[in-house]
Design brief:
single chain; 12 helices; 74% helix
C-alpha cells in the first residue's frame, strides 16, 4: 500500500494509503517484539536490538532508494518499489517456521493497571523521543533542499542520520543488559541533546557527522524502552510492546505537524534547535523509574 503514495490523486487518497499501510506496520510490531522477547533468553536487550535495528537500517535505506528513483523516473513509478519487498515476503513466508506465542489469558491492557505509573512515565519518554527523531528525519530534508541541495543529496544525508540511528539501537540493547536500562535511557537522551542542538547550525560534512551522532545517541533508547517496559509489566509482552511501539510512536508522529507549524513561523533551523532540548525533558521523566529492575528474567509472553 505504501508504495502507492506517488500515484495518490488527492490529499484524502494519500491519507487513506498512509493509514492502511500504517495499519500493516502497526499490526506487525507488537507480536514481532514479543517473539524477540521470548527468544532473547538471558540477553533480551540484544535480541530486541537486533530486531529493531533491522527495521531501522531498512528505514535508513529508504531515502537512498526512493529519492533517486523518484527524481529520475517520477512519482508515478513508485508502485514498482513494492515488487522487491513482496518477493522477500513470499520467500520467507514459505520458509519461516511457525512459532506460537502462548499469550497469558490474564494479559491485555487491563492487566497493566498495577504498573500504570512506571509504564506511563516510560510511555511519555518514548513519545518525546519519537517526536524528536521523526521531526529531524522529516524537516532536515526540507531544510537541506532550501539550502540548495538536490532531493537525492538530501536523501543521502537523511540516510546517514537514520543509519547511525540504527547503529545506536544495536548498541543500546547490549548496553542496557550490562549497565541497566534506566541508566542507558537517561544518558543516551542527555548525550543526544548537544549534538542535535548544534546540527541545524552547521553545514557540510561537519553537519552530517554531528547530526548522525545525535541520532545514534537518541535512537539507542529504542530497544531499551521496549525491553524495560516488558520487565516493568511482565504479564503481557505483546501488549506492552504495542503500547511502547505502535501507540507511543503514533502519538509522537501526530505531534510532527505541530513542529511544521512552528517551522513555518520561526524557521526550520530555530525550530529544530528548540526541539533538540526535548530529550532532556524525556530524561527527566526517567528519573522516577526503578533503578535496579532486572530485565534478564521475567515470564515469557
Amino acid at each position: 500500500m505504501l508504495s502507492f503514495v506517488g500515484v495518490a490523486p488527492s490529499v484524502p487518497a494519500l491519507a487513506a494509503i498512509l493509514i492502511v499501510g500504517g495499519l500493516g506496520a502497526a499490526a506487525f510490531h507488537p507480536p514481532a517484539a514479543a517473539l524477540a522477547h521470548r527468544l532473547g533468553g538471558r540477553y533480551p536487550g540484544l535480541a530486541m536490538s537486533v530486531h529493531i535495528t533491522g527495521g531501522t537500517l531498512g528505514f535508513s535505506l529508504g531515502p537512498l532508494l526512493f529519492a533517486p528513483f523518484a527524481q529520475r523516473f517520477g512519482l508515478g513509478w513508485t508502485p514498482v518499489l513494492a515488487v522487491p519487498g513482496l518477493m522477500v515476503v513470499a520467500f520467507f513466508l514459505t520458509r519461516a517456521p511457525a512459532i506460537a506465542l502462548h499469550a497469558s489469558a490474564a494479559g491485555g491492557f487491563r492487566a497493566l493497571r498495577p504498573y500504570a505509573r512506571p509504564l506511563s512515565l516510560l510511555y511519555i519518554i518514548v513519545v518525546l523521543r519519537t517526536l524528536t527523531s521523526l521531526a529531524f528525519a522529516t524537516y532536515v530534508p526540507v531544510m537541506l533542499t532550501r539550502r540548495g541541495l538536490s532531493v537525492a543529496q538530501a536523501g543521502v544525508i537523511v540516510a546517514a542520520y537514520l543509519f547511525a540511528s540504527g547503529a545506536g539501537g544495536l548498541l543500546g540493547g547490549p548496553a542496557a543488559d550490562r549497565f541497566g536500562a534506566r541508566r542507558v535511557i537517561m544518558l543516551s537522551l542527555i548525550f543526544a541533546t548537544p549534538f542535535l542542538i548544534a546540527a541545524p547550525l552547521l553545514s557540510g560534512w561537519v553537519f552530517v557527522v554531528v547530526l548522525a551522532t545525535g541520532g545514534l545517541f537518541l535512537q539507542s533508547t529504542l530497544p531499551v524502552n521496549v525491553v524495560f517496559g516488558q520487565a516493568l509489566a511482565p504479564v503481557s509482552a505483546a501488549t506492552v510492546s504495542s503500547l511502547m511501539m505502535g501507540f507511543a510512536w503514533g502519538t509522537g508522529g501526530l505531534s510532527v505537524p505541530i513542529v511544521g507549524a512552528l517551522a513555518d513561523r520561526y524557521g526550520i533551523e530555530s525550530t529544530l534547535v528548540g526541539l533538540a532540548f526535548v530529550p532532556l525533558l524525556a530524561a527527566a521523566f526517567a528519573l522516577p523509574l526503578p533503578r535496579n529492575l532486572d530485565t534478564h528474567s521475567f515470564p515469557e509472553p
